[in-house]
Design a protein that fits this description.
This protein is an alpha/beta fold. Helices cover 35% and strands 17% of the residues.
Length: 260
């Protein structure tokens, strides 16, 4: 259970997201949170069954699974599913090119999402890059936070969409510019509008200067939840008012920031 003194509670987050290439996901057992999302970052970083099973004893655990990837392909090789404990849920995603082979990237997403949901109707569906397909499934939507998220949430709710919508957002409990850039500068620089605005070979960490620094700091507000816990709490409340049912924070400056 969340505690009254938990940074997560004070910031209004419902869940956390972890990247197994960056940390030992077992450490999430020390975080007072009820839902844990674990990102798929390739077979080499797939957490051990024992770690996932242990986490699922005290929290709802979800693993992102790219439906085009061998091991999770419902129309082909899905042997990796056998490595997921029964208590671990899935977030069905198309899959990032960084974790897919050239052949995997050519596979059709829509029929694979449909097939995966037939066998796992409680799975969430990641919308990045496949928004219309994801919406058509009627499953819990897993949205990546951006500057347009609140407007899109309101539009969906006004249009009558009443299913659950979870929002994933890199989160930094800080107002120091250097700390923010060190945590998410490279992340926001990869967002298409930001990459177009940045000068070529611009620095994206705390060493960024001039116009590049201004662009990155403004983008941090557009693509992440940034600021002291009270400020982030205002942002999470705004997301809920717009229609989000779950706000998932990724501790971009390290898991320690989410600990008591």
């Amino acid at each position: 259970m969340l505690t009254a003194t938990s940074p997560i509670t004070r910031a209004g987050l419902d869940a956390i997201a972890l990247k197994p290439a960056e940390c030992d996901v077992s450490n999430a057992a020390s975080v007072p949170v009820e839902t844990i999302v674990i990102d798929y970052e390739g077979r080499a970083h797939l957490p051990e069954e024992e770690a996932l099973e242990s986490l699922s004893e005290s929290a709802d655990v979800f693993l992102t699974t790219p439906v085009r990837a061998d091991g999770f392909d419902p129309l082909g090789d899905e042997t990796l599913l056998g490595k997921l404990p029964e208590g671990v849920g899935r977030i069905l995603v198309a899959g990032h090119a960084a974790y897919l082979t050239d052949e995997e990237q050519t596979r059709a997403v829509s029929p694979r999402l449909g097939a995966a949901l037939e066998s796992d109707p409680d799975a969430w569906v990641g919308t990045e890059g496949v928004e219309r397909i994801a919406m058509a499934t009627g499953a819990t939507q897993f949205e990546l936070y951006s500057r347009t998220t609140e407007r899109e949430l309101r539009s969906l709710r006004n249009a009558g969409f009443d299913d659950e919508i979870s929002v994933y957002a890199p989160t930094v409990f800080a107002d120091d510019e250097d700390e923010i850039l060190e945590a998410i500068g490279s992340y926001v620089a990869r967002r298409r509008p930001v990459s177009k605005a940045l000068p070529e070979e611009a620095r994206t960490d705390a060493s960024a200067q001039g116009r590049s620094r201004e662009i990155l700091l403004e983008a941090a507000k557009d693509y992440a939840l940034v600021g002291p816990e009270a400020v982030v709490q205002e942002q999470t409340e705004s997301l809920r008012e717009a229609g989000a049912t779950t706000v998932v924070g990724y501790p971009a400056s390290g898991l320690e920031a989410f600990l008591e």
